[in-house]
Design goal:
Elements lengths: L24 E2 L17 E2 L2 H4 L23
Protein name: pectinesterase
Keywords: Aspartyl esterase, Hydrolase
EC number: 3.1.1.11
Length: 74
């Protein structure tokens, strides 16, 4: 992530109630914009186990629109 990423990692666009329902997880982010210490309190740094469900093509029905499917290292 480049430094252009907001330090909090999330903007409520002046609607703070959104923070009560958002799920914001980061996984193995690197770069100047990847600073977990400055993230909003609800931002979660995902472990390998927590991120696994999001790393499969079925999560976004990717087998229907991603051709060819990417090789995901195990």
């Amino acid at each position: 992530m480049d430094e252009i990423v907001h330090p909090g990692g999330w903007s409520s666009n002046r609607q703070p109630e959104r923070a009560e329902t958002v799920y914001y997880g980061e996984y193995k982010c690197t770069g100047k914009g990847a600073t977990p210490a400055t993230r909003e309190k609800f931002v979660k740094q995902l472990s390998d186990v927590e991120a696994e469900p999001f790393l499969v093509l079925d999560y976004v029905e990717g087998t229907k629109w991603l051709l060819p499917p990417p090789a995901v290292p195990k």
